């Protein structure tokens, strides 16, 4: 069996609890994702009763056979793998402090490491909707009791070995160690090999004299130049903070500048709908404007529950777009609702995104 596919024997009967903070965080994500607490309680009982067979862990998925009174079911829980860029940022956080890798090798997950990863935009621990269940049983709940049982036993695996979480996110222990140690080793070797140098003395005081007169070149708008310099500095700060250099996209950059720098709005050839979307929700709102998508079962069930709880009119649904007369809500990949309104046959964004579809449906402020 590959190192990236690991099998764990069945636990058998016994009442257990997640003891580690990362195991409890896993269960919290399960509870936050669930739309019904009853299957969670049943799943906990199934886990304690030893009804989950051998668990197989591989990048992006947990698999197990779960036994029930009437049949046996194949259950899978999907977890999104980290991208190469996210892994690079995470490995960089491990390399920052030697104790991080030592703790992982000692089967501990430092909170400081997880917090630093989150600050760098790396979703190490699952959140709402990150555990995506799939089961051969006829149940409609998300998760069903079989997937809940598998998730409960997975928290016990995580308790004993946080490398299980990293494998689910896409890399095994050897890959993580190989990716983090060279960086830390190179930095340490360079630091200790560098000879100690004396600091230079202060320069002699002197009179610099008057500053030269400066006249901007003809046609140069100094105010606009100042804004562009500030924008470049902000982008550089983001790159330093995240370690991620965004792919060049001139069209989206024009939209961003037109939305955030009013003085440039008339000079840039940017779609006004796209500019308005960016002003109301940034890149995520622009994606909602331009890219319809089909939510999975979990997202659809969560969206329907939120809609029904607000007692809203029955919508016409196409992919992620829920339409009521001349109003439309677009359900984003971030779980928020983006309001739109039909103006002369064109759907325009009309406000900021909301978690509550009722609030989004009544938002008509275009700014």
In terms of topology, how is this protein built?
Elements lengths: L5 E3 L12 H13 L3 H12 L3 E7 L2 E7 L4 E7 L5 H13 L1 H8 L5 H9 L12 E4 L9 H16 L2 H6 L4 H21 L28 H21 L7 H11 L11 H19 L6 H13 L6 E3 L2 E4 L2 E5 L5 E7 L2 E4 L7 H5 L6
Antiparallel strand pairs: 1-2, 2-3, 3-4, 4-5, 6-7, 7-8, 8-9, 9-10
Helix pairs in contact: 1-6, 2-6, 3-4, 3-8, 10-11
User: What strand line-up does the widest sheet have?
Assistant: 1-2-3-4-5
Query: Helical proportion?
Result: 40-55%
Oligomer state of the chains in this structure:
single chain
Supply Rg: 26 Å
Number of strands: 10
Detail the poorly predicted runs: 182-193
**Beta-strand residue fraction:** 5-15%
* H/E element order: EHHEEEHHHEHHHHHHHEEEEEH
User: pLDDT average, as an integer?
Assistant: 83
Number of helices: 13
Assign the structural class, choosing from mainly alpha, mainly beta, alpha/beta, alpha+beta, or little secondary structure.
Answer: alpha+beta
- Total domain units: 2
Overall 3D form: flat
* Major sheet summary line: 5 strands, antiparallel
Distance between the termini: 56 Å
Protein name: Putative Zn finger protein
Keywords: Metal-binding, Zinc, Zinc-finger
Organism: Saccharothrix carnea
Domain SWIM-type: 120-155
